[in-house]
Amino acid sequence: MEQKLGIKINDLEDDVVVAVNSGTYSFAVVKHDGRIHVLDGKCTHEGGPLGEGYIDNGELICPWHSGAYNMDTGKANENTPWVTDIKSYVVRVDAATGDVYVEV
C-alpha cells in the first residue's frame, strides 16, 4: 500500500534528516546525492528518534547513541553492533506535485 508522507521533495535539503509522522508510521526522510531515502523513524537500540539524526559518510546516525544505518538498505553498520537493521522504504516522488510517497 502506498502512503503519502505529507512532504514535498522541495521541502528537503541535502543531507538534512527530517522526521515525518504519517498515520501510525514514524519515518526518517533525507535527500542524499539527489535521491530520497525513507527509513524507520526509531532506532532499534532504545527507540532514539532517527528523524533527529544526521548523515555521516552516507549513513544515517542515531542522535542518542550513534547507531549507524545504511541509507539504501537500512542495514546496521557492523561497527555499531548495539543496533539491528531497520526498514528502508521504496520511495516514489510525484513529478507533477513533488509529493513524496512510500510503499508500506
Would you mind describing this structure in some detail?
With 104 residues, this protein is mainly β. It has one domain (2-103): Rieske Iron-sulfur Protein. It has strands at 2-8, 18-22, 25-32, 35-40, 54-56, 59-61, 68-70, 88-89, 91-93, 99-103. A four-stranded antiparallel β-sheet has the order 2-3-4-8, with no helix packed on it. The chain is globular.
Largest sheet: 4 strands, antiparallel
- Strand pairing plus helix content: what structural class? mainly beta
> Strand content of the residues, in percent?
35-45%
CATH fold name:
Rieske Iron-sulfur Protein
The CATH homology group name: Rieske [2Fe-2S] iron-sulphur domain
Order of strands across the main sheet: 2-3-4-8
Number of domains: 1
Query: SSE string, helix = H, strand = E?
Result: EEEEEEEEEE
Low-pLDDT segments, ≥5 res: none
Count of strand segments: 10
* CATH class designation: Mainly Beta
Label the overall shape.
globular
The CATH architecture category equals 3-layer Sandwich
